[in-house]
Amino acid sequence: MSTSKWKKLGLKTRIAYITAIVAFVIGWGLTLAAFFYPTVGIIHESVLWVLGQALLYAASVLGIGMYVTGQVRSMRNTTNRYIRNTGRPDPYAKMDFEEVNDVYDDDINEDAS
């Protein structure tokens, strides 16, 4: 992810991504550290449980974000095909995905005020 895309993300999304990455790293770090604990080579079930929870959380945060982005893109493509078939001009034809989201967010903010 480029720096400009990261800066465009909201605070809630940034916190979710950061915590998912931290949980992933801590889960694997704890598992690796368990190898060197006095009972060398034996990992207690609680360590594996923490690893499983960390992996589940990271997959949930990152996977849901990717799924939603994919669905939004799919919906936009379907809408564009519909607009092309009706002969109306596509208002977002020259915009990339982030610009369309910015326009959509601006419309929502105007409606809210």
Question: What would you say this structure looks like, in words?
Answer:
Helices cover 79% and strands 0% of the residues. It has one domain (3-112). The chain is built from 4 helices and no strands. With 113 residues, it is mainly α. It is elongated, with a radius of gyration of 21 Å. The longest helix is centred in the middle third of the chain and has 42 residues, at 45-86. The model has no long low-confidence stretch (mean pLDDT 77).
Topology:
Elements: H1 3-8, H2 11-35, H3 45-86, H4 97-112
Helix pairs in contact: 2-3
* Strand fraction: under 5%
Structural class: mainly alpha
Name the shape in a single word.
elongated
> What is the count of helical runs?
4
Identify low-pLDDT runs: none
- Tally of strands: 0
Helix content: over 70%
Q: End-to-end span in angstroms? A: 32 Å
> Strand-and-helix sequence, N→C?
HHHH
Mean pLDDT: 77
Task: Give a quick account of the main beta sheet: strands, pairing sense, barrel closure.
Answer: none
Radius of gyration: 21 Å
Tally of individual domains: 1
List keywords for this structure.
113 residues, mainly alpha, elongated
Condensed summary:
By secondary structure, the protein is mainly alpha-helical.
